[in-house]
Design a protein that fits this description.
heterodimer; A: mainly beta; Virus Head Decoration Protein, Chain: A; 16 strands; B: five-stranded antiparallel beta sheet; five-stranded antiparallel beta sheet
Amino acid sequence: MSYTFNNTGGTNHGVKTYNQIFAINRTTVGASNYWNPTLVSGDTVICEMSYIHASQAIKDHKLLTWYDFDQGGSVVYGAHWIGAGIYLCYDSDGNGWGVGDFLCCPSIETPAGAGPRPMVVKATSVAEAERPMGTALEQCDENGFATVAMMGLWPAKRQGSLGRSEAIYSRTDGSGKVDDAPIGSYKNGAFGKAIDPDFPIITSTAATPTTVAGAQVCIWGTAAEVF
Amino acid sequence: MSYQALPYTYGALTEAQIDAIPTSSPKIPTGSTVFNTDTQMLEIYNGRIWLDERSLCFLVDSGVTVVKGNTLYTVGSGTTATGEVALMTTSSTNIPKFVGVATRNPVNGFVSVAHCGKVQALAGATITRGNAVEPNATAGRCQQETSPSTGSFGVALESGTSGNLIWIALQTIELG
């Protein structure tokens, strides 16, 4: 019997929106998505993604756990929100990335710093875009570690407009955006679909932040199209 | 808040028990949780239906009848695509629009659709465990394919005949 996790769903922090949990302005006083709790490894929250369709709100949720990968030791990996399909990844090419960037497996690099963590980059070639990994949940410094979601519904920066019924792909220009234009032979690299084609991605820490065009995309989670 | 043996709102229940929980009187708070002992997965109530980690909420297209295990695609294309779901067919134009399998019967027009993982799909023909599965001529059902190619979307985990709900490993659909 639990009396500890006394918020909605038996979690520590109840239901919070994606922008309360992950947007880079979430700790700025005055922001509409302000949320800045003191977190302890093992804390839980339910992340809510929502959009309006036919005048009705459609919501999807994920259970997340705050986990200290270093377990109190020297900071190497840090503490992050983790859940099904979320992986702590290594910035392979030293360029870093921002929240909502779409990331792929590097095709040529063999960095030494990744340890057991997956290596990811913003694709700069068809070969990399054909190996889609997922969308960044956190900013990542050069050769740093940050979380990437590789399954389910998550926001991603987009190129142009996305249809709801088309397969989507990573861009190959290093922009970290997704597109519904095929990138190579057949449908190689297709990794999911756009569910909500308009979800602005917050790109500044201001209370009234700047944004870039994004979409809520469903990442299939099993594999990309490879034949 | 939970007073259950597991730290979930409703503890651990079978799927039938979950579906029998009254949702309107009293109204279940969005974010309520339960562990489904049939699927062995946590489910979260989104204010309309229960959803697990492999599933998303979709609105069923007007006039379409969906039941648990139906294979589904999103109707329309390009700017006319609505994001609403209908029964998957063998049409090549629908293959890129495939979204997954209904994990429950719809509630007030909303349905939980699995896009990956282990899920029960409705067979439209005899299926033998280990074979790939693809759309069947009966809309919303699946059949086996011994030479997987365009349209295959998973692997049968058990054998069954037409009308059976069979467990499959749902994977990315082969687009072409």
